[in-house]
Write a structure and sequence with these properties.
Elements: E1 5-9, E2 12-19, E3 22-26, H1 27-31, H2 38-47, E4 53-58, E5 65-71, H3 75-80
Antiparallel strand pairs: 1-2, 2-3, 3-5, 4-5
Length: about 80
């Protein structure tokens, strides 16, 4: 199980997870300020060959849960897939 760390990104706090030498951002925390539903974004990213995605077990008050995460290296590419 991997702990979620808080990362200050220009005054906003992102939830970041380190797994196997790679850093991931919790997808829900990226979707929330943009008003996007996380599940459709996750399905889209899972199908994208370029996207670095992982479901990572993280602690929660109700016990470990799988968290949908996007590699930090894939964030810019994901932003290009969002339609206004």
């Amino acid at each position: 199980m991997t702990a979620i760390e808080k990362f200050d990104f220009h005054g906003d706090v992102l939830d970041v997870v380190a797994e196997n030498g790679e850093h991931y951002v919790v997808l829900a925390r990226l979707c929330e300020p943009l008003g996007l539903d996380t599940q459709p974004q996750w399905r889209k990213l899972e199908a994208a060959l370029w996207a670095g995605v992982a479901k990572i077990a993280t602690p929660s008050p109700k016990g470990p849960q799988e968290t949908c995460c996007l590699s930090i290296r894939s964030v810019a590419g994901w932003l290009f897939t969002i339609n206004a």
